[in-house]
Amino acid sequence: MGDFITSERGPGAPGLHVSNVRLSVLFNVLAVAVMPRARTDWELRLARWVVEGDQCRLGLGMVGFDVSELGWSESEDVFATQKRFLLELVDAALNREGWEHLPSIPGAVEERLFPLLRQLREMVEQFPREGLTPPPEYRWPEGPPENGLCELHRVYLHETGCLLCNDASYDEPAPHRSP
């Protein structure tokens, strides 16, 4: 099973088929990386979008996305700022920033995560402003996070719990595991 990450409007960016486990870990590392950075409305909405990419909330095989769906601005200057922010976010994940807040990651998954992060970075880097389309209403948040923070993992909560608590093993603390 798994899902896809695509950049249909990006030149020469092949779609990626990603296992559910790697996709889950991708969202986890992006979640801990975005927390200290998100300040603007779009950045906070991106942070919310990341934590809402919880497969425990949406279901396995339901969190794939196209880079064009990230609520980009049509303004050339704002688009460039958003793109730079997302590239910095991926770089932070590549540098393991915030990983001390993660539940354990199996070594084999970690090894496969870095090529995925580099491919995602390339997709974002190549994504043209001319490739903008309105994001699907069901996926791009209407506003910033509104459910508080997980005190253990230091990431925003979604309406049913914590992205990272849901991925923690049953012998690890998980105060906000979804029902």
Q: What structural keywords apply?
A:
179 residues, mainly alpha, 6 helices
Globular, elongated, flat, extended or rod-shaped: what is the shape? Answer: globular
Indicate the radius of gyration in whole angstroms: 15 Å
Query: Mind describing the biggest β-sheet?
Result: 3 strands, mixed
End-to-end gap: 23 Å
Question: How would you sum up this structure, described in words?
Answer:
With 179 residues, the chain is mostly helical. The protein has one domain (3-144). Helices cover 41% and strands 5% of the residues. It has six helices and three strands. It has helices at 20-34, 41-51, 55-58, 76-94, 107-126, 163-167, and strands at 3-6, 16-18, 65-66. It has a three-stranded mixed beta sheet. The longest helix is centred in the middle third of the chain and has 20 residues, at 107-126. The model has no long low-confidence stretch (mean pLDDT 86).
